Amino acid sequence: MTPNNRRKLLFLIPLAVFLLLVGFFLRGLNLNPREVPSPLVGKPAPAFALPVLADVDQKFTPEEMKGQVWMLNVWASWCVSCRQEHPLLMDLAHSNKIAIYGLNYKDRLQDARMHLQRHGDPFVLTAVDADGRVGIDYGVYGTPETYVIDREGVIRYKQIGPLTPDKLEQTILPLIRELQG
Amino acid sequence: MTRRICLSLIVGLSIVAATATAQEARPLAEDPAIEQRMIKLSEDLRCLVCQNESLAGSQSGLAEDLRREIREQMKAGQNDREIVDYLVDRYGDFVLYRPPLKPTTWLLWFGPFIMLLGAVTGLVFYLRRRNRRVPEAGLSDAERHRIEALLNQDQDRS
């Protein structure tokens, strides 16, 4: 290579650095900062024993779900985007593809019951986490959040924010089929 | 007389009632040492709801819950390391404003130094090459004659 050609190549270095930066920005700016990868995926679902919304004298623990693939949906009556995903949960519940359990997060009993009366109840049952402690154990920071838990009680997927038909069809339902199969 | 007794009784009771509610209202800040430790620790932690705020400064419900959690764990004798691990286990490294050093964060930690090293190396190469080229940049005889002619012209005019 002649020295002249080599000098021309030197001029390409800033361009290469620039393209690299553009690549980083394209990736970084398209990521949703609210979607933080959960360290809980692949780990056993934290244990709890919480009262059931329909009858607070009863308790629900995830232990009971061993041997089943199930979904835990964290919701609250004050959570606006929970309303947005609610019809989707209703459809999913009617399809009988998976058992959906609710975790009512930092809510008032009356409000929570009213919410399910008004919009329909997609949950087999809802556990009441009034002070949000179980929410902390599950790393909840933005309702709604949805967990897919396998037969061994291991969290296999976590959705932060409302479910969307795309996410459900392309990611969650295939995963559920695989786990159930 | 009875009126005065009644009055002082009412005043006395209301003072007792006032102090009683005052104490009830702040059960969490009873230990200033723990409070200070909690604030110092949570200044380095990110609030996940409002991500530009620290856990110490955020008013969000989750931040309040987490501060309560930190306080309680401190009271239970947990050290700072254990509490941070507890939070990282649940929310991931994202809660830390000071990311840990591990293979996935090498680029983050060392990237700026690598870029600095690259820039300095480039500068050294460039300066060396320029030094070598400076002697070549002398004037040719024709140019020197022209300069002298121009300078002389200037002197003639003044």
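The longest helix of chain B spans residues 106-133.
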